[in-house]
Amino acid sequence: MSRRRVVITGLGVVSSIGSDPTTFWNATLEGRSGAGPITAFDTTDYKTKFACEASGFSSDGIIDSKLLKSVDRFTQFALVASQQAVDDAGLAIGTDEDPQRFGVITGTGIGGLLEIENQHKILLERGPGRLSPFFIPKIMMNAASGQIAIRYGFQGPNYSTASACASSQHALGLALDSIALGATDVVITGGSESCVCPCGIGGFNAMKALSTRNDDPATASRPFSASRDGFVLGEGAGVFVFESLERAKARGAKIYAEVLGFGMTDDANHIAAPLADGSLAAKAMQGAVAQSGRSLEDVNYVNAHGTSTPLNDVMETRAIRTVFGDHADRLMVSSTKSQVGHCLGASGAVELVAISMGIEQGVIPATINSNDPDPECDLDYVPNEPRQEQIEVSISNSFGFGGHNACLCVGRFR
Prior knowledge:
17% strand; 12 strands; two-stranded antiparallel sheet; ten-stranded mixed β-sheet; alpha/beta
């Protein structure tokens, strides 16, 4: 069976450096860090006291007061970003179209953690009779995809993916397949996450996963640097309209990029640590490029998982060298987590916004805070300043606890 071509016709974003595409992209070009002292709760007793909070987020005009009471913050992010994407794409179901050809596939790593915290406190202090009737619908990991479908009347495939920090990358890959294989014509896809809360920070501190550079949060996320000491927790959402090329062209839609291929594997090795040689991460990258129909030499940009953790950054560098061989020295590689932090299950989607805007404007996002290169990380990480270069074909990596490896291949539409 031949695969249909799939393109991105709309995008939306919520992040610590901007909660709309224009603000987000301008901050990306400026090399701005979204990290700062946590405002959501008292961090006195926490080893890490900072994060990349979406402090400028507002749902005004998009989520009414009645609905706001029944959705967790991660779903609020998804609804706002999806409205941006739908508006950007000029998307609507035509009178002659079947709403079952329109789907929603989103990812989240944890879901309604903030609501779990709040309702557990009520349970302990006031008893089970005072729990909110919205508790279960708010914490469900599929709440975002369900609410998006309700908003737009999309009756096709609808579900959420959960693979830790690879969650939204899996959602994007499955949305690609859904359209390419003819099951749908349009899919709203992406991911959202909101875990900047006591359990989120405390839990990752217990794993020793977070940076504790409390004296200088803005420089704490420093992927591929020798002095990196952990990731910075971020929050937000990235949401897209994926559409068949045929439909997009028929309605004269703007096209940001073409979604070319997807690859996924699992390390089957450790619940939290990546396989040190990166061999299965490499297989995911190879799978994405193979499905794209492009050659390895066509790829000129890698948006790295680049978490700023001791284990990931060395593993990912090894994996990229395994895949690309000598061509790895000609690749541009960067981690936008240096600016927006690690948005967990939303990370792949937020990063695809940067790739899509970079393709449109001929710019490679930088890896900021690159001042002391790790000798074991020896690629061109586009240090500190964005680069005026056209992205022809890019791969985007996401690796999650559980050994999940996911890679999306996108390119300039031609």
